[in-house]
Amino acid sequence: MGLIGKPGTASPTDDPRPAADDGYVLPVVIWTVGLLAMLTLAVVARTRDDAFAAANERNGTQAEFAARSAIDVVVAAFRSGWAPSDATLSGTPISCSLPGGEPVSISIEDEAGKLDLNAASRSSLQYLLERLGVDAPKALRLSTAIVEFRTLSTSSATDPDGVKHALFQSVYELGEIRGMDRPLLGRLLRLVTVDTADAGVDPALAPRALRALLPAAGTDAAKESDIPVRSGRSGVYRIRATAFGGAGSAASLTAIVRTTAARHGSDGARTVEWRGAASVDGNGDGAANRLPSPSPPC
Hints:
- There is one protein chain.
- The chain is of the alpha+beta class and 298 residues long.
- The protein folds into two domains: 49-112 and 234-290, Pantoate--beta-alanine Ligase, Chain: A,domain 2 (2-Layer Sandwich); 115-195 and 211-223, Ribonucleotide Reductase Protein R1, domain 1 (Orthogonal Bundle), CATH 1.10.40.
- Helices cover 35% and strands 15% of the residues.
- It is built from seven helices and seven strands; from the N terminus they run αβββαααβααββαβ.
- The chain has helices spanning 22-79, 122-131, 136-150, 182-189, 208-211, 220-223, 261-264; strands at 94-97, 103-110, 115-116, 192-193, 236-244, 250-258, 270-280.
- The strands form two sheets. Strands 1-2-5-6-7 form a five-stranded antiparallel β-sheet.
- The longest helix is centred in the N-terminal third of the chain and has 58 residues, at 22-79.
């Protein structure tokens, strides 16, 4: 009898008023749906970013591989007896396409047009530094430090100033010279070499910035030049290749290639130094679009 209740008396389950917690249900549902939506968007964005990064890495790797292949093409040409003209050795970029169709830009410079850090006199080094805008006292200090750096030590003791006392193996070792600042180093790198073992420079093969400082070979002025003027090739070449991949990506690679067999006891041409690749990721307005299309075969 107690289950039905008395007439006119409402059962607790028949109360038309909503429970006190019902007002929180809708906000909780909305908040949960919003959170799930944000998490979904975050996952989608992360997946898209990962895919974009993977595509950029793939394009960069392909461009770097193509740059190395372009240098290999030049080395193979040297091995087959190719003799480039002076105009080809001016460092002016030449655009062409690899057998696979990859567009590349190649420049070649004979190191005979640069000042050898291991052979140049202190006065030649000082002259070059002063012509690059370095004041005379600093030019003297730097040129002296360069000579000290490359001069073999007669003592087995470690130099207290950290001076190497051995021949330069790379032009980048100039950065170890005390007092050498980064802007000056950047300007010098294109004008010097460590591979010719010759104190002179051939003006016909020199970079424009260095050529402007030198008289023409065979002239009276050449005999009195602070930098000895020579004529003739070194057989050592700086080859720079820039290859272009998808989405405007590009990679540049530089190699020093030696072709002088008589002095070094090897046949043909060989790469003696690779200088690291620099990858550049672009977009539709990237460097790849600045190449003529189609480019002639390399």
